[in-house]
Write a structure and sequence with these properties.
5 strands, DUF6129 domain-containing protein, about 90 residues, DUF6129, five-stranded mixed beta sheet, alpha+beta, globular
Length: about 90
């Protein structure tokens, strides 16, 4: 479960990164209690929970047998940060 306000803090942190390459590292360091997956947006077929700049945020639910994308912050145990290419 994402604590209340955590998504807002993640969005503010992502918006304050100087370069795309440091975004995932910064988020992992600032929110170590969450699972983080960083990939290209073309690797994910689901619609994002939020779009921020060049990134799509997907909520990750790893509470069951298999990890899956969810749109329910109450079930989220992590974030998939998917970087879109310039033409996405």
């Amino acid at each position: 479960m994402l604590p209340e306000g955590e998504l807002t803090n993640i969005e503010h942190t992502l918006a304050s990164t100087d370069t795309d390459s440091e975004a995932c590292l910064m988020l992992r360091q600032r929110f170590p209690h969450l699972a983080w997956i960083c990939c290209e947006a073309s690797d994910i077929t689901q619609s994002p929970f939020h779009r921020l700049g060049q990134f799509d945020l997907h909520l990750l639910d790893s509470g069951g047998h298999c990890a899956q994308i969810t749109n329910d912050p109450q079930r989220a145990t992590g974030i998939v940060l998917a970087k879109r290419s310039g033409n996405s």
